[in-house]
Design brief:
- The protein is built from 14 helices and 18 strands.
- The chain is an alpha+beta fold and about 525 residues long.
- The strands form 4 sheets. Strands 7-11-18-17-15-12-13 form a 7-stranded mixed β-sheet. Strands 1-6-8-9-3-16 form a 6-stranded mixed β-sheet, with helices on one face. It has a 3-stranded antiparallel β-sheet with strand order 2-5-4, with no helix packed on it.
């Protein structure tokens, strides 16, 4: 019998070093509510052993834990209890809807806290993930299907993992893993209504600032405490809700946006999977209320296009800065006349390139079926006045570009990049305000799904400019060996991360196994250099 690869040394619940003096109850925002069903938001940082950061030394994790408690002083709600609102929470609100609106209660002796797990892994870090040098050479395309994501994440369920389960469950779990070589991993996983990627990175950087002091960083070096702004109501104020109910003009603007309105409750949808209904019960009104309610327009989710049993592979593709620049130039030079007014970003070009490749790999060159790229958009800078990056929560929505499969597979990179930029440009402050306004009056914020997966959809999230690789917990002044965005391995998922100030992109792609083989063998993958 072989020894287990990893062993849990201990697990505990941690709390702020100086917790709130009284119990607080905060209703999360309308957009937070709309993502409550999403998979958790999380990341795993892997670090090589350094002179002052060797996981075989117990003081490493002791310092990290102390710094975590100090950081939670600014994030006390991360230790609190997520639950669903009741009528009492909306008294006096312009919008009386409360079903499916999450609240967080914190500052009591019954708070669930943040789960902290310490794990010892018998493997070398080199057996887990390539080095930065390898990613620039032999493993620019790295098959990460076997990356042990679950080994590096705490096993405790998060609140709202199922919409009906939350009591006593934490909203945040953290795992510290030591490796045989002295390297280590730090993972953070949060219930999505508490945090999007921007908030996650703000928290990680805030924790790293506190941690660096304990590793000898000089407090006089000018580093500022990264305190968050946790006031979800500020976002809801941008919706301009009134006691008289929804504004028809705002509703019209909202529903004209390129956003999916897939109905989770539509049991009569072709291919509706038996597991889906159970996941809706926690925030679905009673049959009596539903009988009196008028549901907003929606469409059936295209369940038959998503084979959940199909094996899926995951690759990480490192595109160097010069390759991304070449993509951007190619996109700019091939922009159709109708899109000439749009300024193309490096991200637009990279997403266009990947989406074209995915549809070619899905063999859609002759298909007239609509295919979609569903893109996560942050709204902090898309409201007026804008919210700071320190705004804590998950203020995101998803917009899409739709085209026939044959067009995406055969057109120019400029045509697709321009369409992506054009779609994003529609989400003006007025349009986003109208969307939040409309969403506030939904019967339940979790009914409509703004994206899908499977053979006709590509779902994108970008962590560009989040400084993920620059999170330095131990004052080593080195980049992480690898940063892994925590995602389920599902057909059609794409994530983009940049590597500090190198200009490089590391793009994560998950596709059905045979589709992935065609994707990797397509000579067009390296059309702009490698």
């Amino acid at each position: 019998m072989t020894d287990p690869v990893y062993q849990i040394q201990h697990a505990k619940r941690v709390f702020p070093l100086n917790g709130p003096k009284q119990i607080a109850t905060t209703k999360l925002s309308i957009l937070d509510a709309s993502v409550a069903r999403f998979a958790p938001c999380g990341a795993i940082w892997l670090y090589d052993r350094a002179e002052n950061a060797d996981s075989r030394d117990p003081t490493l994790f002791e310092r990290l834990e102390k710094a975590l408690r100090q950081t939670l002083d600014d994030y006390p709600h991360f230790s609190g209890q997520l639950q669903w609102a009741s009528e009492e929470f909306v008294k006096g609100d312009a919008n009386p809807r409360y079903i499916g609106r999450p609240v967080v209660v914190y500052g009591s002796s019954g708070d669930p806290g943040v789960e902290l797990t310490i794990v010892e892994d018998s493997r070398e870090l080199s057996a887990i993930v390539p080095s930065q040098g390898e990613r620039l050479t032999a493993k620019q395309v790295w098959n990460a299907t076997d990356f042990p994501q679950n080994d590096l994440l705490a096993k405790t369920k998060l609140a709202f993992s199922s919409l009906s389960e939350f009591k006593g469950l934490p909203g945040v779990t953290i795992q510290l893993t030591s490796f045989k070589c002295g390297g280590f991993a730090i993972s953070i996983k949060l219930t999505h209504c508490l945090s999007d990627a921007v908030c996650l990175m703000q928290f990680a950087h805030a924790w790293a600032v506190q941690s660096r002091y304990l590793f000898g960083s000089d407090r006089s070096d000018g580093e500022k405490r990264l305190a968050p702004l946790f006031e979800p109501s500020q976002l809801d104020q941008r919706a301009h809700l009134t006691p008289t109910g929804p504004d028809p003009e705002k509703v019209k603007i909202a529903r004209a946006l390129p956003m999916h309105r897939y109905d989770w409750w539509a049991k009569d949808a072709p291919g509706y999977p038996p597991w889906a209904e159970a996941s809706t019960l926690g925030t679905r009104p009673s049959p009596e209320e539903l009988a009196r309610s008028e549901l907003s327009p929606s469409s059936f989710p295209p369940w038959p296009t998503w084979d959940l049993a199909a094996p899926v592979e995951h690759v990480q593709i490192r595109f160097k800065a010069e390759t991304i620049i070449a993509m951007k130039k190619a996109a700019e030079s091939s922009l159709p006349d109708s899109l000439r007014g749009h300024r193309i970003s490096r991200l637009d070009a990279a997403l266009a390139h990947i989406w074209i490749l995915i549809n070619r790999a899905r063999q859609l060159e002759r298909s007239q079926d609509q295919v979609y790229i569903d893109i996560t958009l942050g709204v902090r800078n898309r409201v007026d006045p804008p919210l700071p990056n320190t705004f804590s929560g998950s203020p995101i929505l998803l917009g899409y570009v739709a085209k026939p499969g044959s067009e995406v597979s055969t057109t120019t990179i400029g045509s697709i990049a321009g369409s992506i930029r054009q779609m994003m440009s529609l989400f003006t402050p007025d349009a986003v305000s109208a969307y939040i306004h409309d969403a506030a009056y939904e019967v339940s914020p979790q009914r409509l799904w703004q994206a899908f997966l499977g053979s006709k959809h590509t779902l994108v999230t970008s962590w560009v400019r989040a400084r993920a690789y620059e999170v330095d917990f131990c004052a080593t002044h080195k980049l992480a060996r690898y940063v892994h965005g925590v995602m389920p391995r599902i057909d059609g998922l794409v994530q983009v991360m940049d590597i500090a100030d190198t200009g490089d992109f590391d793009i994560s792609v998950c596709l059905e196994k045979e589709t992935m083989q065609r994707f990797l063998q397509d000579s067009m993958l390296k059309a702009y250099g490698f």
